[in-house]
Amino acid sequence: MRVLLFTDTLGDINGVARFVRNVAREATAQHHDLTVFTSTRFDVPAEVNIRNFAPSMAMRMPGYAVLDLAVPPARAMLAAARELTPDVVHISTPGPVGLLGRWFARSVKRPTLGVYHTDFPAYVQRIFGDEVFTAATAWYMGWFYKDFHKIFLRSGGSAALLASLGLTPRKLAVLRAGIRVSEFQPSFADRAAMDRLCGGDIHYDRPLRVVYTGRISVEKNMAALARIWRRAYELLCASGIAAELVMVGDGPYRHAMEQALAGTRAVFLGFRHEQELAMCYASCDLFVFPSLTDTLGQVVMEAQSSGLPVLVSDSGGPRDVVRDGETGSVLALDTQADEQRWAEHIVEMLADPITRQRRSKAAHAWMSGWSFAASYESFWREHLLAAGGGSNHVRAARS
Fold this sequence. Notes:
Order of helices and strands: EHEEEEHEHEHHEHEHEHEHEHEHEEHHHH
Number of helices: 15
Structural class: alpha/beta
Largest sheet: 7 strands, parallel
Number of strands: 15
Strand content: 15-25%
Strand order of the largest sheet: 3-2-1-6-7-8-9
Mean pLDDT: 92
Helix content: 40-55%
Distance between the termini: 15 Å
Low-confidence stretches: 390-399
Shape: globular
């Protein structure tokens, strides 16, 4: 079987790009015939099965300057796609590259599969606050995916969302989540290096650290996190507990958040990658993720694999990868009273090293069963079935 995957994002810093890069790497390791097509101005991994076509036109995403909106060279990309003669087409994003992949799959009558990675209507509503624009985005998402052979959900919590877009439930399937667990381990902790990164004195006043990783943007509920940390910080100071909030990532809300957190102990590290990112996770004490719109929350899995207890909202996909009360806590985040409870929970966790240690061990053990290899096996099996491979081909793929 030959699979051709179209994606608008690959060099960007986001969960979708990391998922696609992992798929490409795993396909090579498994000797599977999978090729990734993208079109971006950003650097992409130098993998033999990734092709980046120079964009015909590219611009910063309106309202979201850290992301690119690129128009692919349609003629060159379509010619290359026809030359590959794929059995199945996979589309990871509904942008210009995804649109071209959708048109190609229909023109050559190949089954089309895709992952609903991002709740774009919710993002549009939070970023622009425009009901008409939000409704138009929801219509477009329903139209884009309606003819797909199968649509993968990143978590079971997304099923109702896709049903609201008018998508047929029988086409939906939850794609087993997974990360490269070997790359996120408690053993990667380096408290002295973290002290230096955060600008502190490694010989004095090492604080407990609460960490957030991801885009610093409105749709990630950063305004709520700023209010929560301010309340938590006041309570921590009153209790004599030295602590700081570590923000790993960047985005359009960063400046506003820096202002909102002025007077508290908070550091902004920008984007961190690979070993340094793994060190940041493992060298902190608690992970917080207040997003209400994520369909999975890969960073929540990475944090747990690194031995961090986590705190997530009860909306969206992250709750599905957390064992509430064991590896972390799942709390509502809809009201001011909820924000107060989050702040109190942060204080409780930082003041209780025994519970933190117990949850740290449980989180790492829990994530050890969520390997990306198992996720990829599920991914490849579904494509084999779509191509008409049947059970014999599935067994061959496993071997």
